[in-house]
Amino acid sequence: MPLPHRTVALRLLLRNPVLLRPAALRTALAAVPRPVVLPRLPSSASIRTASSQSTPPQSSGSSMHFKRLALVASGVVLATAYLYRDSLAELSGISTPASAVTPASAATPSGKSVLVVDHGSLYTGTVPPSTPISKETDNDGRKVVEMLSPEEATRKLRRNEESYLVNRGRGVFRYDVVQIPSNDPIEDDHVEKIIEVPSNNTDDPTDWMFWGVFDGHSGWTTSAKLRQVLIGFVARELNATYKDALVTKSLPTPEKIDAAIKSGFLKLDHEIVHGSVEKVLKTSSKVVAAETLAPALSGSCALLAFYESRSQQLRVAVTGDSRAVLGRRNPTSGKWVATPLSVDQTGSSPSEEARLRAEHPNEQYVVHNGRVLGGLEPTRAFGDAWYKWTQEVQMKLKMDYFGRTPNPRLKTPPYVTAEPVVTTTKIEPENGDFVVMATDGLWEMLTNEEVVGLVGKWIEEQQKVGAPAAGSTGNHGGKWFASWRGGNNAAEKNQLPVHAETEQAEKTGQKTPPIRVRQWGVKSEEERFVCEDKNAATHLVRNALGGKNSDMLCALLTLPSPYSRRYRDDLTVEVIFFGNTDNIGTVTVNEEATAQKQVNTTTTPEAPAAAAPALEAKPKL
After folding, report:
1. What span, in angstroms and rounded, lies between the C-alpha atoms of 130 and 485?
2. For 49, how many CA atoms within 13 A lie in the half-sphere containing its CB?
3. Residues 6 or more apart from 399 whose CB is under 8 A from it?
4. What are the pLDDT digits (tens) for 506-563?
5. Looking at the predicted structure, is the pLDDT value of residue 503 above 60?
6. Which residues, in sequence order, are bridge partners of residue 306?
7. Which residues, in sequence order, are bridge partners of residue 113?
8. Where does residue 402 fall: left (phi above 0), alpha (psi -120 to 50 degrees), or beta otherwise?
9. pLDDT above 90 as % of the chain
10. Residue 326 pLDDT exceeds 90
11. Rounded distance, CA 593 to CA 158, Å?
12. Which of 187, 3, 179, 183 lies closest to 86, judged by CA?
């Protein structure tokens, strides 16, 4: 709202206290022009399922600088808030500059911070302590919530964090995990598992270590299914491949190992999409049908890492647009180099679009506005059966179970595949390599280089405080990054210890700057990062959501679902640290970097299997 119009509105309220009532206030403000302060960027959810007539998502030029937004706010609560501030100034004879706004994090005992969300804008402000806050959406579509304090925001960040110390002497030192929901319930999921594989000779056993992050969409059921069974499907295929190689007394070729991983992915997706239909057609129960079809009707991207400790080979299989990035220290500069281990698979990818057009020639809308058939953003995913079932199957389900009408552009399904692209990397545990795996919610906020640099900075800070994870040889295993040294150049004091290589990153699907950074109006040159957390994954999420800007951090974590999806996605982040440790044969909870409820769960004697990721023994190969 332009300043003169806002002043008129506030004076009107001062002269007519009855207008402070919400209904009267809405009427009074209705005649005042209201600007669109922050046109919202389409959320990932809307991008994935938008109709084919929608236009591609565009970066908003507006920013999330909350002080500026609050100045032009004209929502019910904020109008009251500014009325309160200005009326105090008028009564006391003190003039209040138009630019004087109380930041959310600086709320005084005489007021409380609030967040107001309407159709396309986000406001913050301060109201008197006695002002009632209704958390119900009003007739104008606004929702008002009390802002989290910085302390409350930190508790929310750490609520689902986990950290494990891997004391098995096989190249992995530790891994950290965190999840922050935006959807309710969260559609992301994750899984970790270690399978001990005995040798058929005198060699020590080897570990097969798996980490998976799953970015669900249109529901949580597909990602939950992947958490439950994907590693099992892949491990069975790998087991068969290694057994076949015993005939020639050799190890499987790299191509056969990759093929085994792909086979595990495809067999599971076939069970989800087509096996479910076979089961449903044999039952007359709609309840059973709904439960059986649920993982097929929703969808999920999948990112699975497989580390074989004997060869020190890390394979990363990606289906969709979750991403894995390797951090490796440059021994000369002491800085880190970010190397992407996966390429985002979306309709905006030239290679994915070319593949789809080759598989479906003469179909103009096979990719439209960067989406499959104009509707789905990832070109590879589990589930999403509407893009895989034939028209006959879809019509049968529509008639029997009130399903939806097939997409009129559906001609030659399947259009979406679960087949992953697999990359292989030789890990260097002795040099302290680490890998960050995350759903696209993180990469919408931070670049590959920022993520790797932030972990590098976190390692440096852990060394300063003498944390066990930074190189001690105590109960947690051997030295880890003991010889690491960051740059000591004073000019680099406020910079992240990472080499910038944006050209390579952009080829993998990275947007520079990230899409949310453009939406929020964050300037990349601003000093915006902090190091406050013991959990490396939580550290990344804190900085993705605002870092030093506590107003932004608190606001983004205050936003309730579904409003939060306008500004951030579900977040699942794993950081895997490689290093040589003593072989104690255990995986233990790292309590200082694990939420208390997680510690209580994992150390309960009645549930020993929950104390760490599953540790299994397989038959000798």
Report:
1. 53
2. 13
3. none
4. 566 666 667 666 666 666 556 789 999 999 999 999 999 999 999 989 999 999 888 8
5. no
6. 210, 315
7. 126
8. left
9. 54
10. yes
11. 9
12. 3
What was the pLDDT predicted at 122? Answer: 74
Any bridge partners for residue 116, and if so which?
123, 144
Here the tokens at position 260 are 């085994």
Q: Which residues pair with 196 in a beta bridge?
A: 207, 617
**DSSP calls for 491-525:** GGTTS-SB---HHHHHHTT--SS-HHHHHHT--TT
The SS3 of residue 174 is strand
What pLDDT is recorded for position 512?
66
DSSP letter (8 states) at residue 76? H
Hey, what amino acid is at 429?
Answer: P
Least confident of 122-136, 438-452, 591-605: 591-605
> Top-level CATH class of 155-617?
alpha beta
Q: Compute φ and ψ for 417, nearest 5 degrees.
A: -125, 155
Single-letter amino acid code for the residue at 90: E
Tokens of 201: 């000779």
How many other C-beta atoms lie within 10 A of the C-beta of residue 463?
19
Q: What percent of the chain has pLDDT over 70?
A: 68
AA letter at 204 = D
Say what the pLDDT of residue 190 is: 98
> Is pLDDT above 50 for 8?
no
Output b/e per residue, 194-211; b: 16+ Cβ within 10 A.
bbbbeeeeeeebbbbbbb
- The tokens for 556 are 């983004």
CA dist 54 and 47 (Å) reads 9
Instruction: Give pLDDT, residue 211.
Output: 99
- The bridge status of strand 206-217 relative to strand 188-197 is antiparallel
Q: Where are the domains of the chain?
A: 3-34+65-147, 155-617
